[in-house]
Amino acid sequence: MPAPRKNQLIGIDIGSHSIKIAEIEDSKKGMILRNFGMIGLPEKAVVEGSIKEIEVVSAALKNLLKNLKIKGKDVATSISGYSVIVKKITIPQKGEKDLEESIQSESEQYIPFDINDVNLDFQILPSEEGETEERQELMDVLLVAAKKDIVEEYISLLHLTELNPVVLDIDPFALQNAFEISSHEQSGCHALVHIGAQQLTINVIKDGVSIFTRDSSYGGAQITSEIQKRLDIAYQEAERVKLGARPLEIEQRPAVEEIFSSTVTKWAQEIKRALDFVATTFTDSRVENIILSGGSSLLPGLSKYIGMETGLKVEMLNPFANLEIRERLFDPGYLKYAAPMAVIAIGLALRSIGDR
Ligand SMILES: Nc1ncnc2c1ncn2[C@@H]1O[C@H](COP(=O)(O)OP(=O)(O)O)[C@@H](O)[C@H]1O
Ligand SMILES: [Mg+2]
User: Fold this and answer.
1) Which residues contact 322 (CB under 8 A, 6 or more apart)?
2) What are the residues whose beta carbons fall under 8 Å from the beta carbon of 114, sequence distance 6 or more?
3) 97: which of 227, 272, 324, 347 lies 20 to 30 Å off by Cα?
4) Hey, what CATH class is 184-316 in?
5) What is the residue with the minimal CA distance to atom 12 of ligand 1?
6) Top-level CATH class of 84-146?
7) Where are the domains of the chain?
8) Ion ligand 2 neighbours, Cβ < 5 Å
């Protein structure tokens, strides 16, 4: 008899480079990795978090589900990019029910889109100790707004793939969930930095609470497309050059090296801008270290470079560290390689039915 299924969801991360799927079982003895796999996507099927070729993405997703022998239908997935806004707002104290009714008018001024074009969600943040009387009449709310057309794209994709969307998360929160089950120190202030193919996501966590998030459209695809242009080769070839799997002529090397260094310089500047903002906005919070993930964090020398530029210690996020791994099911070498790319899918697989 198969074990009765818990309320755990299948975590599906639709990236622009690949789709990742993870399943975790939350057992009495701890969390067990049940399933993990990835499948590549062709160029331009998903662009900056927007699904451009729904049939292509659905076919890849079906393939991966089949390869992993997944029968379940209930899914947690996430969206990211410029269509998602996360903002901490401060408003007069009110109850959750009242806020639910007034969230639209309260948020209007903070959202750069027409309020009728977005789905809104919020979370009331814990108040800080030793607040002034004036402060006690106010409360902090974490506001999440996602453009309806992006949400629709993801729902349509899942329906087309005969899946049931139960939780729609956002990448920075999934990242935070993966961090929370990792073996990294949780207390204090940490900058989670996730660099994928077309996204650079930053989430600064202070004592378990997110105090700052930012998403920008930087990522490894910048390097690939620049190599493609400069060397006048196909996308897949350029990808191989980037990964060092295709040897270069001597005269090609300086151009490629220049692409690497100018791109990672931009990434480091983006991270520094975020850290500066956090330092000036939250004067009582000092970011202690950077926890790096995403496929592009595998670029040789990247973590060292970011460490040098920011003056902070950089550690790699391993989302598998505290999961029980059955070696007969998973090749440890594969999981080690995939760890930085698995982060969002693992964060999603931690969600269960009943979460919103
Ligand atoms: N070993 C590596 N060295 C450098 N870049 C890598 C390596 N492995 C993967 N990448 C890059 O990481 C990106 C994919 O990361 P991922 O987090 O999976 O992105 P996405 O979620 O957008 O699919 C691609 O740009 C890919 O080229
Ligand atoms: Mg991604």
Assistant:
1) 30, 31, 181, 182, 183
2) none
3) 347
4) alpha beta
5) 295
6) alpha beta
7) 84-146, 184-316
8) 15, 196
